[in-house]
Amino acid sequence: MSLIASGQEMRIAPVAEADRDALASLLIETVAANGSVGFMHPLPLAEAQAFWSQALASAARGERVVLGAWLGDVLVGTGTVVLAMAPSQPHRAELTKVMTAPSARGTGIGAALVAALEQAVRDAGKSLLTLDAAVIEGATAFYRRLGYHGVGDIPAYAYKPLGGLGATRLFWKSLDAREITTTSTADHAADEQWMQRALALADRAEREDDEIPVGALLVSAEGEVLGEGWNRNIGDHDPSAHAEIVAMREAGKRLGNHRLVGSTLYVTLEPCAMCAMAMVHARIARVVFAASDPKTGAAGSVFDLLADPRHNHRVEVRGGVLAEEASRRLTNYFRAKRGRPLL
């Protein structure tokens, strides 16, 4: 398959033995950046080459699929699915080693690779895909955005490449062709429009109240704005006055109900645990956020509260909508506070 990424044509295809050295370089680069891929830093070239030689031999035997993503002639990403499973799991495959070069991140290459791997799994007649991902910035939120369900975390699972034990989160996704997909391209366009409004609310938080620029609004299933708000912690002397809470309070008063069934909440920063649990209690249908929060995010980055199967209500999540714009606002707010030049 091919598509356009960052103005260049991207090609995704199976890798070959001739690509081994490029794959090895990508693996070494990932390990050096503390990517949790089963190796410790520094990773010798010979060891990286040996790993890929074994993986490519396994692919030649039909035990796995190894794909690469190229921008022009440069390999900028790779992903693998293992097809060979125990006799009791003929329907399952395991997603492993999804890596994107730092220079190509944020261009959609990782998501395109995963989509191509999912199709390879379907073509192999399998319907369940599982994976584990280190609980680090971006990784778990990435899979949540692609429709993977978090099962739980295993603490102190493995050492990170640069040292120190880290937790791992387990995920699964059904690839059954009968599975209903409810989010359309039109929904995505609407999501960006509503997020622009949330960003305008974030601007008001900083401009009018000198609060951290986070904005939120709640939209009904019919497209009506039910409530909106921005961070009011400092001004209201209220530790619970996050943008999401402010918007939900306004919506509850407007509807005369503590249940906000069928609504979508748009917020410029991934919800924290407090806000996420309020959304669960309110029976919100869907949450769309912009920037991920690697420190306190509860929609997949640190916790996965909105989709936890132990709740009697689960909230659909889409993250990363206008994330770069939201992140820049937050970064510049704190840089200005410290007297540093804006980005």
UniProtKB/TrEMBL annotation:
Keyword Metal-binding: yes
One record GO biological process: tRNA wobble adenosine to inosine editing
Residue stretches making up the N-acetyltransferase domain: 10-176
Pfam family, one: Acetyltransf_1
Primary enzyme class: hydrolase
Gene3D superfamilies: 3.40.630.30, Cytidine Deaminase, domain 2
Obligatory cofactor(s): Zn(2+)
GO molecular function, one term: acyltransferase activity, transferring groups other than amino-acyl groups
Family: Belongs to the cytidine and deoxycytidylate deaminase family. ADAT2 subfamily.
Protein name from the UniProt record: tRNA-specific adenosine deaminase
